[in-house]
Specification:
Chain lengths: 302, 661
């Protein structure tokens, strides 16, 4: 099934809407068939939210409800985060709707043994950007076509190459001095209330018992004071090094508006420049932070 | 409540000079849980140990901190003492206030302050130490020896004589290694083959040695006492057990004349695709080289060898086989390479006629060699003068920096042999003569008396005497006599380059396969350069001979026997006792991301399946194989949810150690 594409070459496309009417109906009928035939127990996708400006996640088990699936610029959520929940984990085989950026999370989860490929039907959507105005991550997107899917909806767009220039947003930070950086982050992290929304929404924060919840010993202070906030946010960043796929969901869900994606993208950039590695591009790539390759630079050993 | 005893060692003046041991002891007495603290001049001495023993009993101690030298030095001593005094040995810890404190500080105040911190941290750790019991692992009483040169042969014979089964693997069609190529051996000048071939046939005949030639080790799994090794047996295309080495196939090969460079003769002679590597080859049978055989490369050949063979032992259908063997220990005797003479363009090897390598000269001098022992120039005449250039590629910052140890001696030996078997005058160009060894200096003096010329200085250039004369004419060696300080040009008919030892071309791959380290220059690395010279950092894997570094035959044989003795020490027991300081996984919190598996250098992480009552798989978690785990800790460090801990050095212990600072 892998690599089968739906021919939509003659379908009308506009620059604002992602899926045309025809692609959407293909997705809906495909989802319906999956449920009807019993191939999957559930389809995770997007549906109309409670207000007209919002989309919301849909967990569809009834084939008749497959027609409620939507896809447009309101569908910025990364649905792969639901795969780490206990309910979905024991749901058996499911289908999931993913954009290019979301699909990268699937590759990381596969690489880290968190999901089973045979328990998953990946419904890939060609996405040219979501959000109004278009999200920052979409402006620099190099994965309009998902790097992994079983069924692709939409006309594939050739993905751009990754270069150092891709990481535009990090540039504003790189111009700062060490002191300015320190002040900037003290100021930003000071607002953290330790609600851990960033952790909960992250598709690859897969630990069932987070290190912050460990209290024997208590490595990460629980209180939202400066030190505790730095502890948490830096630990989170380090645990994502070489793993973060840059979906920016942490930043979107942060109630204190901390620019968390700046931390993430800085790390993505560093890992890319050091190892030429972008997390989530393939389920077989060796993760650089836990792999040693002979001949690798070791300039940190003095 | 913890009852900890603290002992501060003076180590003579080693520690006491820069650490005020008395005040460290006084401060230690004030810490909660410390019921006894004492300082002593030498804690490791007999009186020192009896003070500790008495204190353990008298104060009913539940923990022991010895603040002295590195635990590498005396941890075992003090743990044994604890055990003998009725305390679990893993309740005793050494805090290092010598190497990590007194030896690196000059200021006594600073040193004392740091010592107090170090001791305090160890007291906190010991407070949380738990009694641990040693882990037992089974033992397979069979040994793998890789490489059948003199090192592998000697080790195999020693082990087999002691009653162990040996699997000896050799990548070439015959055993013998470099030693089989040598003419005579210094300093006694016995014929190399005369002393080696009895050992070669002893290996072949020994009922407990399984010899696998033309084979290579593919994969190694397991751990000390329990290795599983996959060996790739390449096809010889001649049935080894049937062939008697009658040579009929060679005579009747469709190639009427030998055409291909003979590897054993270092390219000096030619061989056919079917050949017997050398007269004393073991196993003695013929062998077909798949790269040059017409049948095997093109599939079109009259196969005259098959019809000529009186015993029907040629089989072109033979295929590669993988054989798995279980062994308890491994000895690597994979040998060395020699410096590539092409990398020394100034000496013209390969471009100028009559420039040979030292191994080529060995073959030329050998009575079974391509010239049957005669020293001949390319035009078939005998040379009148021969120059031997020592240290070609050695002791040279542009080539290999190390001294290859044996070149001085073999160069003098070659000089002696050349002068004995020909009329030629020999010049030895040397930097220093290193003749350290029993009878070596005497040999040097004897060769000097034989009128061999020795000139101190590294030659800069070798060229033809008459430029552009199509390679005719004498060779000129441009050099300097550093003793008289004069530049010299020495005309010679023949040049021998004394090439040094290098790591074998396969050393990188072998190190990976056997999970051992290499020293900076690329030879296999011993566990301790002085005190564990044949062991490696992988338990149960030993290194002997040229693969560990340049050495001569006596030293190689001594190492081989040393490794055999070490292996016997392990395999004489029915169970192996291992340190219980191994990693443990908290299965409840493990999410099975197996990053620990990726970073484990000992392949100790296994997958454990957690199933419900109906046998349905719920999830997979990491499981530590106690027999493989060394307690090194990268798994604990990389685990994102911190659900791996190492017994004896748990996260909580590290945390509390940091907390008291």
């Amino acid at each position: 099934m892998l690599g089968v594409m739906v021919d939509v070459s003659d379908a009308e496309t506009t620059s604002t809407a992602n899926a045309t009417f025809r692609e959407l109906s293909t997705l809906q009928s495909f989802a319906k068939k999956l449920l009807e035939s019993g191939t999957v127990k559930m389809v995770i996708g997007y549906s109309q939210g409670y207000t007209s400006d919002r989309a919301m996640p849909a967990f569809i088990t009834d084939p008749e409800k497959a027609s409620s699936l939507i896809f447009d610029k309101r569908c910025f959520h990364n649905l792969t985060m639901y795969l780490k929940t206990a309910e979905i984990k024991c749901a058996g085989k499911i289908a999931i709707v993913v954009k290019g950026c979301d699909a990268k999370a699937l590759n990381v989860l596969l690489l880290e043994n968190q999901i089973k490929r045979e328990n998953l039907v990946i419904l890939g959507l060609v996405c040219i950007g979501v959000g109004d105005p278009t999200l920052e991550k979409c402006r620099i997107c190099n994965v309009n076509t998902p790097p992994i899917y079983d069924e692709l909806f939409g006309k594939p767009v050739p993905n751009k190459e990754w270069t150092s220039a891709t990481f535009t947003r990090v540039k504003e930070l790189e111009g700062k001095s060490q002191k300015e950086l320190w002040e900037f982050w003290v100021n930003e992290f000071n607002r953290c209330i330790k609600c851990y929304a960033c952790r909960e929404v992250c598709p690859i924060c897969t630990c069932t018992r987070c290190i912050t919840d460990k209290n024997q010993p208590q490595w990460v202070p629980t209180s939202p004071h400066s030190m505790g906030n730095f502890h948490w946010n830096l630990t989170r960043a380090f645990h994502l090094a070489g793993r973060c796929i840059g979906c920016d969901e942490c930043e979107r869900s942060c109630p204190a508006d901390i620019p968390l994606s700046l931390v993430n993208w800085k790390l993505i950039k560093q890992v890319f420049e050091k190892y030429g590695f972008i997390a989530g591009m393939s389920p077989d790539d060796l993760p650089p932070m836990s792999t040693y390759v002979e001949g690798e630079e070791e300039e940190f050993i003095k | 409540m913890a009852r900890i005893g603290v002992f501060i060692c003076h180590c003579g003046e080693n520690i006491a000079r820069t650490v005020d041991v008395v005040s460290v002891t006084e401060v230690a007495r004030t810490w909660p849980g410390v019921v006894y603290a004492e300082d002593y001049r030498f804690c490791c001495s007999d009186p020192g140990q009896s003070i500790i023993r008495d204190a353990i009993k008298e104060h009913n101690l539940t923990g022991l901190v010895i603040s002295a030298c590195s635990p590498k030095m005396h941890e075992k001593t003090f743990r044994n003492l604890a055990k003998a005094s009725g305390m679990n040995p893993y309740l005793c810890e050494c805090s290092n206030i010598r190497e990590q404190c007194s030896w690196v500080h000059h200021d006594k105040e600073v040193g004392t302050e740091k010592a107090i911190d170090l001791v305090r941290m160890m007291v906190e750790k010991v407070r949380m130490n738990h009694p641990l019991e040693p882990i037992e692992a089974p033992v397979t009483k069979r040994v793998l020896v890789v490489g059948a040169g003199i090192a592998g042969i000697q080790a195999s014979l020693d082990l087999a004589e002691a009653g162990l089964e040996v699997v000896l693997v050799e990548r070439n069609p015959s055993i013998g290694g470099h030693m089989a190529q040598l003419s005579e051996t210094f300093p006694t000048l016995d014929c190399s083959m005369c002393i080696l071939s009895p050992k070669m046939s002893a290996v072949k005949e020994h009922p407990d040695i399984k010899l696998l030639t033309y084979s290579e080790v593919e994969k190694v799994e397991g751990f000390i006492g329990n290795y599983t090794v996959s060996i790739r047996k390449k096809p010889r295309y001649v049935i080894e057990d049937l062939c008697v080495g009658c040579n009929e196939c060679v005579t009747h090969c469709v190639f009427k004349k030998p055409k291909f460079p003979d590897e054993f003769n270092e390219g000096l002679g030619k061989r056919k695709p079917v050949y017997i590597p050398f007269p004393q080859a073991t196993p003695q049978g013929a062998f077909i080289d798949p790269e040059t055989c017409l049948q095997l490369t093109t599939g079109k050949c009259k196969q005259t060898c098959v019809t000529a063979c009186p015993k029907d032992c040629i089989d072109f259908e033979m295929v590669e086989e993988i054989e798995e063997v279980e062994v308890g220990a491994i000895i690597l005797a994979t040998g060395f390479g020699t410096y590539k003479p092409e990398l020394l363009p100034q000496y013209g090897y390969g471009k100028l006629d009559n420039v040979y390598t030292s191994l080529q000269m060995e073959r030329m001098l050998s009575s079974s060699g391509p010239t049957e022992g005669e020293i001949l120039l390319k035009d078939g005449t005998a040379p009148k003068t021969v120059g031997i250039i020592h240290c070609a590629g050695s002791r040279d910052e542009n080539a290999n920096i190390w001294c290859s140890k044996v070149c001085c001696m073999y160069s003098l030996k070659l000089a002696h042999l050349i002068q004995e078997f020909s009329e030629a005058q020999v010049f030895n160009f040397y930097i220093d003569i290193r003749a350290a060894g029993k009878g070596y200096e005497e040999f040097y003096l004897k060769v000097i008396e034989e009128n061999v010329m020795v000139l101190r200085g590294r030659p800069a250039l070798i060229e033809y005497e008459e430029q552009g004369n199509n390679g005719k004419g004498n060779l000129l060696v441009h050099t300097e006599d550093t003793i008289s300080g004069t530049k010299l040009v020495v005309p010679v008919d023949m040049v021998v380059l004394s090439l040094g030892f290098e790591p074998d071309k396969d050393a990188v791959q072998l190190a990976k396969t056997f999970n051992i380290s290499r020293s900076p220059e690329g030879f296999f690395m011993e566990r301790h350069v002085k005190l564990a010279p044949v062991a490696t950092t992988t338990d149960g894997v030993y290194i002997v001979g040229g693969c560990q570094g340049p050495k001569d035959i006596p030293e190689t044989v001594a190492q081989a026997s040393a490794a055999a003795a070490s292996v016997l020490g392990i395999l004489s027991k029915d169970k192996l006792i291992r340190e219980p300081t191994v990693a443990r996984v908290n299965e409840l919190n493990c999410i099975g991301c197996f990053q620990c598996e990726k970073v484990c250098p000992y392949s100790a992480i296994e997958h454990k399946e957690i199933r419900d009552h109906d046998g349905n798989l719920i999830r997979e978690v990491a499981l530590v194989n106690d027999s493989l785990c060394h307690g090194c800790g990268p798994c604990a460090a990389i685990c994102p949810s911190k659900c791996i801990d190492v017994d004896g050095i748990t996260e909580e212990q590290i945390y509390s150690q940091l907390a008291v600072l």
